Amino acid sequence: MNGLMMDQPLLISSQLEFASRFHSHVEVVTRTVEGPIVRTTWGTVAQRVRRLANALVGMGVKPGDRLATLAWNTQRHLELYFAVSGIGAVLHTINPRLPPDQLAFIVNHAGDSMLFFDTTFLPLAKHLASVPTPLQHFIALTDDAHMPENSGLPNLRAYELLLPHQPDTFEWPKLDENSASSLCYTSGTVGLPKGVLYSHRSTVLHSFAISMVDALAISAQDVTLPVVPMFHVNAWGVPYAAAMVGSKLVLPGAGMDGNSLLELIENEKVTSALGVPTVWLGLLAAAKTAGRKMSSLRQVVIGGSACPPSMITAFQEEHGAKVLHAWGMTEMSPLGTACRLLPKHANATAEEKLSVQMKQGRPIFGVDLRLVDDSGSVVPHDGTTSGHLQTRGLWIASGYFKSDDRTQHQDGWFYTGDIATIDGDGYMQITDRSKDVIKSGGEWISSIDLEHTAMLHPAVAQAAAIGVAHERWGERPLLVVVKQKDQEITKEALKEFLEAKLVKWWMPDAIEFVDALPIGPTGKILKRSLREKFAGYKL
């Protein structure tokens, strides 16, 4: 017997129309690539999205066509999020930080027919026009007055000239909710990037999930600032959720530096900000230099890589903002876990709470996790036994675009490539990437734990631990450290600090100071580059 409920498909266009009808006067604020701050509303955004949808259909865009973007977090990029998917086409957000050869590869692999780009990325657009690709149209995300001159790009148009003569009404097609909506490629740190093809259904379900109080808690009460780029895993799904709940949305454009973000947070009274640790390092430094407290901030969501304990302490004690540690992957849309404290932690000490917040958190509804050993057998969730982390759920990729590669899937579970523990309360903690774990004498040493411990020292800004060859033990840890500005520490002093906190056999055999660590296109430390730099290192 079936229930007597209406059957309405889960579609991204419905999120926009909800924002238009019930949150039409809520602001969307953008720091533009051209410079000025532009203020509009969800109602006006929806009108422009409908005009854009009419323009795209008029240009011959058909369901299933892939349309690419090279763009910052702006209103125009937001409009593309809804218009492209809404008409049944597929939005392909390209990470401009990828090497040029990888950019060309993914454009060809995706089969993109159009490229929408911010003028910042004109050199990349010109590169893509100079090599064989299926691109037929280039649209600069600007107005006629700011169009690049003598670009040499074929069929180049100004975005703003697409809209004026189009009607602001559009009959959104009733798509199958399993239709593809957007396409993101992995960062390609190992091998070529792989395409993850999201659906309307998975995107809307993910929007519901991240809006839950025990997840990212996005709501109409918030002023939300996604610093995570819109070209990286759809800005963690925040633009879709913000429309669905009617949150004021603040988009930072290309201004991802600490001073620019500090200005936006103060002027717009941002309550919830989301980004990776490398971005927050710059923001905290800017606030400290300016002597300012970000009093409006209620929550800072930190994901992408492990969060240093000093960062949690700085946000919570100096700015009064709760830190939410989160974890996910491109293949997971991306959110998998969020680290909210439980009622049992109400009377815990500050140190005990911090030890929980350092974990990646508990699964949100719609995501399941398990650990397996090298043979594929499930290991206990006791908080101490490590295993290969696997996941499955409502918005997790079942495979890669145009690929038959199923090596990361087993019995309906996806191999994340992480080594982790899960405790009895469901708190998951990444102890390493499978490829980064240090194997010494047959035992695993967590590079992440080494890094976290080193960053407890006030003179350490960043740390990365890698394994280097050892004649007896196979591998031993090398700790690579970036010092805090205007602070000094010797190798001997740092070693003494670590000795008081680590078991003896986990101690790094050597410490090296560097000016900066190599950072990848998604803000993560590139361990592979460090291993190449220190190849042949003699302990």
Task: Describe the 3D structure.
With about 550 residues, the protein is an alpha/beta fold. The protein is built from 15 helices and 26 strands. The strands form five sheets. A nine-stranded mixed β-sheet has the order 2-1-11-10-12-13-14-15-16, sandwiched between helices. Strands 7-6-5-3-4-8-9 form a seven-stranded mixed β-sheet, with helices on both faces. Helix 6 (about 200-210) crosses helix 8. The chain is globular and about 70 Å long. The mean pLDDT is about 95.
Salient structural properties:
539 residues; alpha/beta; Rossmann fold; GMP Synthetase, Chain A, domain 3; 7-stranded mixed beta sheet; 15 helices; 28% helix
CATH architecture verdict of the domain at 12-26 and 41-199? 3-Layer(aba) Sandwich
Name the beta content range. 15-25%
Instruction: Estimate the mean pLDDT confidence.
Output: 94
CATH topological fold name of the domain at 12-26 and 41-199: Rossmann fold
What is the structural class? alpha/beta
User: Could you tell me how far the N terminus lies from the C terminus, measured between alpha carbons in angstroms?
Assistant: 70 Å
Counting DSSP E segments of at least 2 residues, the number of strands comes to 26
What is the number of helices?
15
Low-confidence stretches: none
Please give the radius of gyration in angstroms: 23 Å
The percentage helix is 25-40%
Shape: globular
- Write down the CATH class of the domain at 12-26 and 41-199: Alpha Beta
